UniProtKB/TrEMBL annotation:
Keywords: Membrane, Transmembrane, Transmembrane helix, Transport. It comes from the Bacteria. Residues 306-336 are annotated as: Disordered. The chain crosses the membrane at residues 6-30, 77-100, 112-134, 161-183, 189-211. Residues 11-218 form the Cation efflux protein transmembrane domain. This is Transporter. GO terms for molecular function: monoatomic cation transmembrane transporter activity. GO terms for biological process: zinc ion transport. It is found in: Membrane. One of its GO terms (cellular component) is membrane. It comes from Streptomyces microflavus (Streptomyces lipmanii). Residues 306-317 have a biased composition (Low complexity). Pfam families: Cation_efflux (PF01545). It is a multi-pass membrane protein.
Length: 336
């Protein structure tokens, strides 16, 4: 995801949510609808969330320091996680409480044209925001389904905005249904039921966001496509004969760490191996531009360890791949 694309979607959602929040709160004051109050708090919480995403994007651009040598790219994950907390507590829990209270003590809705008019306006505004998020997401989604895009995306902003906008649209429909049924039946309980449904919806979306963002915070590897490109770029078939083991880790949405132990021929000099490593790093960066931190450690392929199903020096004990072994074993001596 490009930073500009994510920012455009966030700003569009922020403008829409601020205008909608004001309109909903005015409608609540004139009509007394609990659905409108819950929706105004929902839109206000969403506006704060977009502010958090913008702040996280700005902080993530800071230069690396001795204390944080890999930079601040994960700031974007932290602020996206805060979004899920705000959505759960301020949006979801408040709406559940408000809905429960209005079901126990239903209020009559007055000036019905206020909530209905504002809800129609809000739906139009949210459709504009949702359309912008979809358009920006399609630039990086590729052939992935929407579910896979939300689950696998390494940049949190667009999935967060997509889920927020989807939740807002569904919530507006629920609010419109609750207000409509309350007006049609003269029973304010329906307004409370609509508010309760909005709260449950927001809590579900908040939990989904929290789970996905927690995975990013813990550290995710590169996608399968990027891993295959890196593997193909490392091996030159000459000095570098294979990969003994490799690890990748996202330091941020657009910065990838690559660490690998590579198999080299036993009869190469230290200078030849160093040149081969430099060439491999250049090939990796050409194949996967976000691979900005690369550590390659040369080693001699151990056929006996591979036959035993373990990789020397690999803390995970993962099975060794099968790089082409040297014709004759020789002691590790990079200067030989």
């Amino acid at each position: 995801m490009s930073a500009s694309g994510g920012t455009k979607a966030i700003v569009a959602a922020l403008v829409a949510n601020l205008s909608i929040a004001v309109a909903k709160f005015v409608a609540f004051l004139f009509s007394g609808s609990s659905s409108m109050l819950a929706e105004s708090v929902h839109s206000l919480a969403d506006s704060g969330n977009q502010g958090l995403l913008l702040l996280g994007g700005k902080k993530a651009k800071r230069e690396a320091t001795p204390e944080h040598p890999f930079g601040y790219g994960r700031e974007r994950y932290i602020y996206a996680f805060l979004v899920s907390i705000v959505l759960f507590s301020v949006g979801g829990m408040f709406a559940v409480y408000e809905g429960y209270e209005k079901i126990k003590h239903p209020h009559e809705i007055t000036a019905w044209y206020w909530p209905v008019g504002v809800l129609i306006f809000a739906i139009i505004a949210e459709i504009f925001s949702f359309r912008t998020a979809i358009k920006e997401s399609n630039q990086t989604r590729g052939n992935r389904s929407w579910t896979e895009f939300v689950r696998r995306s390494k940049a949190p902003e667009l999935p967060v905005v997509l889920l927020e906008d989807l939740g807002a649209l569904v919530g507006l429909v629920l609010a419109l249904g609750g207000v409509g049924l309350a007006l049609a039946t003269g029973n304010g309980v329906w307004d409370g039921i609509g508010t309760l449904c909005i709260g449950i919806l927001l809590i579900v979306i908040a939990i989904i966001l929290a789970v996905e963002t927690k995975s990013l915070l813990l550290g995710e590897s590169a996608g399968l496509e990027e891993v295959e490109k890196i593997k193909a770029a490392v091996v030159d078939g000459d000095t570098v004969t294979g990969i003994i083991h490799m690890r990748t880790l996202h330091l941020g949405p657009e910065e990838l760490l690559v660490a690998a132990k590579i198999a080299v021929r036993h009869d190469e000099t230290a200078t030849e191996i160093a040149n081969a490593i430099n060439a491999a790093e250049n090939r990796i960066r050409e194949a996967v531009p976000i691979a900005r931190v690369i550590y390659l450690e040369p080693d001699i392929f151990n056929a006996e360890a591979a036959a035993a199903g373990t990789t020397p020096g690999d803390p995970s004990g993962a099975p060794a791949p099968a790089p082409a072994p040297d014709p004759a074993p020789a002691p590790k001596d990079l200067g030989h």
